[in-house]
Amino acid sequence: MPNTQIRSVKSTEGVNRPKRSLRSRINRWGLSLLAVLVLGILVFLLVPSPIKPAKWSAPTAPSFEEAGPWKQNNKLSSAQLVTDAPQFPEFITFDKEGQLYTGDSDGKIYKVPFDAEGNPQKAQMFADTKGTPNGLKFDAKGDLTVTDVKRGLLSINPSGSIKVLADQVDGQPIYLANELDIAKDGSIYFSDTSNYGSVTFKEIAENKPHGRLLKYDPKTKQTTVLLEGLYFANGVALSADEDFVLVAESYHYQLTRYWLKGPKKGTSDIFVDNLAGFPDNITRDDQGHFWVGIFTTRISFVDQMHSNPWLASTMAKLPESLLSGASAPAKHGLAMELSPQGELIGSWHDPEGKLYGVTTAVSYNGYLYIGTAPGGSKGVHRVLLTK
């Protein structure tokens, strides 16, 4: 009996010893991992930020729930697919025959004809810029003028031959040619979005103006700077009388007006501000009204970051691949209509998120045509222009 008890104790000790040893090793590993994590956080916090953010208290975003022109509806929810040949049709324009033209992010520009009943036919490739064509507009001669993010200001003749009109201004490169409009005298007004040369979350976090509004004179073939210090210069549109030109400042939720005629010529002011999202392209309809695509509704984290430079500078240290999700478009399609005086007439929504990442809204022949950019839904869509 005593011997049996002793053997029992020894047996128990033999079983418990490995368990305690395993537990000790797990604890040591856990402490080591914690130490590495803490050290990594300390190093991350001590590494200098690539930016020095400017503090900005963004205005409170308009509500979609309250009565008024921003009130949510489903006007875009019934959108019809026109073509899915271009994945991301940034901008949309029409030629004199009523054929639709749009570019894709891979450099290709497509032409979409319509039958006698107005039904879209199969898309045809018109040209390939080997860049990223954003803005498109036909000039008086019938050539397609293009602002290409990678190549600058281009002209494409009806046979698809491409010529570079401008890729420099004042001895500097045109960093990111984005959108354009053409005056009756042939002058081309276009945006140079940012001297960052690409769309990056760091620029949002920095909250400093790096964009410009440019003008190309086809007679002298010279490009000049009209405005600089813009917060992500984007869409461009002339007024019906061409007494001013608008440029969207996406990162400050506003449209800026630059006066071309009258007592204010050569000066600028705010046309409309505190928009419900990031304004992208601007088009003008036959009534002189402006249509604006809203790429994404307001992102509360971004607004909070603007008021906290430490948070902004810390976020800018993260790899861009991790930050892209923070600025991805909300799955809420949105476009707006403005009067020639800047009054918000109404907004068009798709709260279901089937159509989102809206860059362009073009009123043409009884329809509102919608374009999008990478991050949003795919293909050209349209909805009937019923109010």
From TrEMBL:
Pfam families, A to Z: SSL_N, Str_synth
Listed Gene3D superfamilies: TolB, C-terminal domain
Strictosidine synthase conserved region domain span: 178-263
A GO term, aspect molecular function: hydrolase activity
Transmembrane segments: 29-47
InterPro entries the UniProt entry points to: 6-blade_b-propeller_TolB-like, Strictosidine_synth_cons-reg
Family label: Belongs to the strictosidine synthase family.
Superkingdom to which the source organism belongs: Bacteria
Identification of the protein by name: Strictosidine synthase conserved region domain-containing protein
Record key words, sorted: Glycoprotein, Membrane, Phosphoprotein, Transmembrane, Transmembrane helix
